[in-house]
Amino acid sequence: MYSGAQISIYPMTDDFVGVIVGALSALDPYRDRLQVETDDISTLLVGAPEVLFPAMRDLFVAAAKSGKHCVLHATISRGCPGEPDDAVCYTTEYGGPVLPLEQRKQMALQAVQSAPVTDMASAAQFSLYVMDTNDHMDEIYGCIDFLRQSGTFDRAKNFCTKLGGDAGAVFATVQAALCRFGPPEGHVTIDLTVSANSPTVR
Amino acid sequence: MYSGAQISIYPMTDDFVGVIVGALSALDPYRDRLQVETDDISTLLVGAPEVLFPAMRDLFVAAAKSGKHCVLHATISRGCPGEPDDAVCYTTEYGGPVLPLEQRKQMALQAVQSAPVTDMASAAQFSLYVMDTNDHMDEIYGCIDFLRQSGTFDRAKNFCTKLGGDAGAVFATVQAALCRFGPPEGHVTIDLTVSANSPTVR
């Protein structure tokens, strides 16, 4: 099943090009398992979720370690109709029979608990969209229940959920949301924003 | 029906706070018809689409007129289950009987043609998500057909469609996509990124 993201990094500094170029080497350990394609708006990363999320995390952390206020935005998708399947997207994260919602919540919580620590504090918000099903709100409420127990939950906002904490746990939370909720073969997307070093008081 | 957006402006400059603060007065003509609520990640705007999109456009153009590379991101939603209805969201843009897809395409094209000119060149990309329907891809393909005729179409990308042109036409295109496609009472969302003054060659 095709999966990937359109990602952008926004360093709020005159040297935004330098910050981005300086962070790009963070993608090197993942490049053999990702397709990468850049234009003036975003960079397309195509690959399995277990590669995609660590790659986004490491790129974001590398940019944020500049100390500048940095934001990563990602439009993430799995199972989009009309997108070709691709071997680079092969994953064991989903597919197969649908497990009970409660079991999927526990798998999601375990994934967040075992996430690596990056020592980069972050704030994030995301929206999970589940298409092709008439009970999509059940999956979303199940996901929200996971989020409230995840340790990264900040608060519910209109149209999205706000997270906070170490970037390792935050990206693991969003990865689990994509992989554990919605039909295994369904079309599920996420609109994700992650921020570091904001001068704005929470 | 509840409608609004979580929006963020990213000016790629050391003086990002100054650019944002300097642009905020662009919202003044709309404030009596919008609810506005800001935190460290985004600003919530709640209101009808015919107020929301011009407000986002004018805010973006005001920031971009700084000459700095500026990006606006918006998570836009209408008809989200669980959100309260609100009088500020009353609109004549949708609701009522479902019109034939071809007629809605024509209404969308007319809206783009009559959009005001802002003299701010922009590039944009967005994803349209239609929930709660088993034929959501029909609505999306109908929308793509409108986009190809809109005059702002740049190209199809994985997970999104890229637009370009005057910011007036670009925001009118996205507004028409939200209002004219998907069920009138349905849950429809957009993940939108608009950029100006990028140093990257297209």
Automatic annotation (TrEMBL), chains A, B:
Q: Which organism is this entry from?
A: Devosia yakushimensis
The domain of life for this entry's organism is Bacteria
Stretches assigned to the Thiamin/hydroxymethyl pyrimidine-binding YkoF putative domain: 4-83, 123-200
Which InterPro entries does this UniProt record tie to the protein? HMP/thiamine-bd, MTH1187/YkoF-like, Thiamin/HMP-bd_put_YkoF
> Protein name, please?
Thiamin/hydroxymethyl pyrimidine-binding YkoF putative domain-containing protein
